[in-house]
Design a protein that fits this description.
Pfam families: GntR, UTRA. It comes from Breznakiella homolactica. InterPro entries: Bact_HTH_transcr_reg, Chorismate_lyase_/UTRA_dom_sf, TreR, Tscrpt_reg_HTH_GntR, UTRA, WH-like_DNA-bd_sf, WH_DNA-bd_sf. It is a single chain. With about 240 residues, this protein is of the alpha+beta class. The chain is built from eight helices and ten strands. Helix 1 crosses helix 3.
Length: about 240
């Protein structure tokens, strides 16, 4: 079995980890790697594909293989944790900027997801999350005003969940989450420091209260090089 591509992958991964190719730099081209290692184009491409799937590089059309940063923050898919709670475990400074806060009728498909009554209105919150001086998350939240009658910018800049639980007494219980990869939009490009990245990791959540009521729909759009989504899985016998 041809394992040359694994050998090349291991060598290139080690060189990236040792800092020979810093974040944002380009790896040698396919042709250069073929010449340096006397490997076929197919072998080199397999190695580069594996480096990309393991988060070392991203392939940019017309540019080449761009090295990604190795510092990533773990997001648990199976737990409900706020950005404020996550930021307490980070070494870099964090900041939340409220882009929009409005009480509105809201999109019909969101109202349907939240099982809203005709008289209910939606709080819409758009926030950018900055870590180490880079805006790398765009959060968009919709909350039913039947459960959240009052919101202000100060609450949204700090801990929304702390306000909901401690001030409003909501019993937040669980969420149904969907994780997908999507191309960035114009809104993303305006509110995030995407650099060369065109793809985002998008987490959509329906959040439930203890009594089974759905009170929140959220869409969290992440720059892909800074996050690793983790989960715990148990085999069922």
């Amino acid at each position: 079995m041809n394992r040359k591509y694994m050998h090349l992958y291991a060598q290139m991964a080690d060189r990236i980890e040792q800092g020979e190719f810093p974040e944002g730099s380009l790896l040698p081209s396919e042709s250069e790697l073929m010449e340096a290692y006397t490997y076929s184009r197919d072998t080199v491409r397999k190695s580069l594909n594996l480096l990309e799937s393991q988060g070392y590089i991203t392939r940019v059309k017309g540019k080449g293989s761009v090295v990604l940063g190795l510092s990533r923050y773990d997001f648990s898919v199976s737990n409900l944790i706020s950005f404020r709670e996550l930021s307490r475990h980070m070494e870099l400074p964090t900041k939340t900027r409220v882009i929009n806060l409005a009480l509105e009728e809201g999109p019909s498909h969101i109202r349907e997801k939240l099982r809203m009554e005709p008289k209910d209105r939606l709080w819409f919150i758009a926030r950018s999350r900055e870590i180490g001086g880079k805006r790398i998350i765009l959060d968009k939240d919709y909350l039913n005003d039947r459960f959240v009658p009052m919101l202000n910018t100060a609450v949204c800049e700090n801990s929304l969940y702390e306000y909901l639980e401690k001030e409003l007494g909501l019993k937040i219980s669980f969420a149904h989450k969907e994780v997908v990869v999507e191309h960035s939009t114009e809104e993303d490009r305006q509110n995030l420091d995407l650099d060369q990245y065109d793809l985002l990791v998008v987490v959509r959540s329906l959040v439930y209260l203890q009594d089974g009521e759905i009170f929140q729909y959220s869409e969290s759009r992440h720059r892909p090089d800074r996050f690793r989504f983790v989960d715990f899985a148990r085999r069922i016998h």
